[in-house]
Amino acid sequence: MSDFPLPLPPDRVPEGARDWRTHDTVQWAAAGPPRWTHPLWSIGALLLATVWNIAAAPDEACTPDQPCGTAWAYVALSVLALVTLYWIARQPRLALVGLAVTGSAAAWDAGVGELVTAPWDLALLAAWAFALVGLVHRLAAAGRQRALAETAAGPDRHALPPEARAFSRGRFSFALASVLLAVAVLAFWRAEQVAGAYETRAATAARVSAEVTRAEVDDEDVSLLHVALPDGGTRTVEALFPEDHPVGSTVELVVDGEWVRLIAEPYDVFGWEVLLLVTAVPGVGFLANGTVGQRRHRRLDTDRLPVLRVLVREGREDGRTYVYAADDLAAARPVLSFNSLYVAGPQDVVPEAEHRGPEEEAATWERQREEIVAAFRGTGPAPELREAVLFGVPRTGDEAVFLAPAQGGTDVAFERSVTPVKPVAPGPLRGRRGPRRSTRSAHRSADIARTMTPGARPLSWSADRDSRLVGGFLLLVQGGGMWALLDDGFSWQWLLLLLGVPWLVHSVSTALNWRVTADRDGVWACGPWRARHLPWDGIATVRHRGDALTIERRGQDDVELSPVGFRRRESSSAARAADTLRALVDHPHLRPTEAAGPGEQGMPLGPVVVATATAWALIVLLL
Asked: How far is CA 327 from CA 23, 232, 273, 324, in A?
């Protein structure tokens, strides 16, 4: 990393702007919330407790006195509860309101004394309290960080220049929210139509008692009850919960000629309720995001703001903007990150006389496309470190605006965030997050190269214990799924085999027997179906992300092996393969001097797994 970031012209720096130095950013990060308040823990606790509560709590049967109809209060509470889970991660203040409303509604519905009568109720109450305490701690930490940032910025305050305000925020969220909420309203209207039609007809129908004589399921998996009427006639009526009406029991019906319904189960609007739920939850989430984001951006436009001098750089692989302390010239410790866009002002309009011809436009478009592809693949040039002025108080979840030289240093431009500000802090399960290893990978490649000595024999890496455990588990899933679907004979569920088995065969074959070999001429990558030889000249880099080992090639499609085991530790076989292969790509003198023989290139296991699966399917069908 260069010790000389792209400079910001002194005349563009607001008067009195102070450096946000490393000791300030360290204090700011230390004032953040403790790791136990990470949203993942609160959301996980609430989900587990809710699932336990739903599974363990006794079901309430539908009765003529309390029929199963529309339950909009519970649907609305479910929408709010699900949105609150999202707000815990993104909107802590709104999450406090959501927790308060859902907790109060649950207490009102069950009674305070009823909330602690069972262990699953206690678990839900404890998860609710844990989430509430975590939100309070996070908001208190945000206040502490705000105070520290204002102290570091000093007493001077500045308004945003007019050219920095030409930025719209929230339109995309509002558009999505409008579509989703319109579908939710339609689902509510259709369900009310079904309920209204029943009420209208039931008002003039006869109400009779009947005895259940037989229960069956028709060809469309609809449960039917055969009942005997008092006048000796019989009727067949649909039942949503036939287990609540055993043979010999008495049921209450409304009868209007051939039209007959159970009073306890008058109609089924479950599908419309589900549609409302799955559209209202993201719809409310997008609406809240747009509203909050727009309000925060408007506050930046109208308030006089503190300013801090910082350094910024885009992540090579994820495109996020990372903020560093003003004296962190090595860009070693990112403090904040967010996605940002340039503010489109009048200066961005190209005069008519400067319009380029078709050939120049095509060349420019091709260059931009290559830059975008390189940015997504992480193979483009490393983004430059730039001086910047950050307007406003850096705080988790807020919006951000900064002035910095444009990439290439030809101009100065404002950029504004399009996602909430996030601190680059330790995650709940792993260490500190930061730019996705672009510079770290280069440093690690150099470190590994220093420890290597040139050799003649090819270097190989193959599936280790963790990878084979994944393969073994998937093989059991494949065998069990085939048994469950084939054991009952031919049915439409066999279509699931066509969808799931090819993926399972591919994954099992890879996880059990993947192999990568580096030799004199290139890399042999053995997957489930073949071993491919990739010349050194065509390889750009090698990465291990998630459970995939990817060999990125110049001008050609990447070669990916997955699953090869998650990168939980640097000593895993796939992690060592990626690190060493990167070193060999960057340092040709370390490559082996001999070619790999057939036994070192690997043997694809896919055909063997296919034959095994076919034999297993025949065994299941013939038993």
From this structure: 10, 93, 56, 8
